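A sample follows:
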Amino acid sequence: MPRIQARLARSNATPLSSTTVSETIPWEFRDDSEPTEFDGCLSENPRAAAFAGIIFSVLLFVVFGLMRLSVPSDPFEPGAWLAEDTTYVALAMNLVPFAGVAFLWFVGVLRDRLGAREDRFFATVFLGSGFLLLAMLFAAAAVVGAIIIAFHAAPEALVHSATFHFGRGLAYGMINIYLVKTAAVFMITTSTIAIYTHLTPRWLAIGGYVIAVVLLIGSSYFSWGLLVFPLWVLLVSLTILRDRKAVPISTDGLPP
């Protein structure tokens, strides 16, 4: 409110208190923002998003790769992999939190780069799908970790119990059904935002639509199909890193 009080002072009017000014001005026209020490970092945001996306993609590639090599894709398997070396599986589970943090940073910096051009509807779906994706990824990792711990505590009792098959089916469903579909929604929303704001090249946004459709329809037919999601994030990140000093984001807003 300093600008409003300055205008009142120049016109020899009695300045209003900040409380009175805030009460008399409609909320949609208020400007309570103040410069902060973080404003100087805004120019680095595209680069930060790119590096965060690259880290997330690489970590998710490693996690899914180690899981596919160590754990059979068949949810009805008897659990023979638990009797073998589970070092790779444990390593994959420990990498999941770091991948999640990188993904949150990637999403946050992309939102900041959009700024005032962000549409509320797409922002809600964008954030919601991203949070759901991470929640299911973390939950599935926790279930797999719990299965490994329970097996080492009582090997024979776990493998022949309904608890093992319940946990195995729960982790399988979270990753191969719900997480895949949520990732497809995230890709569709991000591609829509990218098309209208020129955040990424048009071909990459259209490719996001195609990959999302493949994940929605054909993910159950391809055991390695989930890897296309981190691959797409990697391409988006590399594009942002390459074009961070190129043409700025379009000032045109998203469609009403």
User: Anything to note?
Assistant: Residues 44-242 form one domain. The two ends are 31 Å apart (CA to CA).
